[in-house]
């Protein structure tokens, strides 16, 4: 082996040894610096707060409140007089019959109501209870009792003659 080859291998071994020593120093330094116990994300308050903020609902649904309880005397009086057609009309029928939406005859429009009234109350009740053309059954409020719907029909026809 020549002098150049020998010196090349000596330098190569020194470089490889130096790199190996540098790698050992880096590993030791990393172990010393990371010697603190790793934290559990479940125990970190900031992490939990960030998670709760990310998964919080965007909005809330307001389904309204329950109607206030009536006094027993008022309930008895209402039951004895029957359903309030005007209240039912305002609650369930006004959206269409107050505006004429979807071809519904407007409240108080005698010309629009005359042909319907001429068909008889039974036909009007049947259409109101079961739906007719664009009108849904019970005006879209299926929780109404049949008597309530009939009272609303009576109220509308009485005020549209």
Short description:
This protein is mainly α and 161 residues long. It has a domain of 76 residues: Orthogonal Bundle (Cytochrome Bc1 Complex, Chain D, domain 2). Helix 6 packs across helix 7.
Explain the layout of strands and helices:
Blueprint: H1 3-33, H2 45-55, H3 72-81, H4 85-97, H5 110-118, H6 121-130, H7 146-158
Helix pairs in contact: 4-7, 6-7
What does this protein look like?
With 161 residues, the protein is mainly α. The chain has a domain at 83-158: Cytochrome Bc1 Complex, Chain D, domain 2. It contains 7 helices and no strands. The longest helix is centred in the first third of the chain and has 31 residues, at 3-33. Mean pLDDT is 81; it is low at 72-80.
Index terms:
161 residues, mainly alpha, Cytochrome Bc1 Complex, Chain D, domain 2, 7 helices, rod-shaped
Q: Tell me the major beta sheet.
A: none
Q: Please provide the count of β strands.
A: 0
CATH third-level topology of the domain at 83-158: Cytochrome Bc1 Complex, Chain D, domain 2
Q: Number of helical segments? A: 7
CATH level-4 homologous superfamily of the domain at 83-158: Cytochrome c-like domain
Distance between the termini: 125 Å
Compute the CA-based radius of gyration: 41 Å
Structural category is mainly alpha
- Content of β-strand: under 5%
Shape: rod-shaped
Whole-number mean pLDDT = 81
Order of helices and strands: HHHHHHH
What's the CATH architecture name of the domain at 83-158?
Orthogonal Bundle
CATH top level label of the domain at 83-158: Mainly Alpha
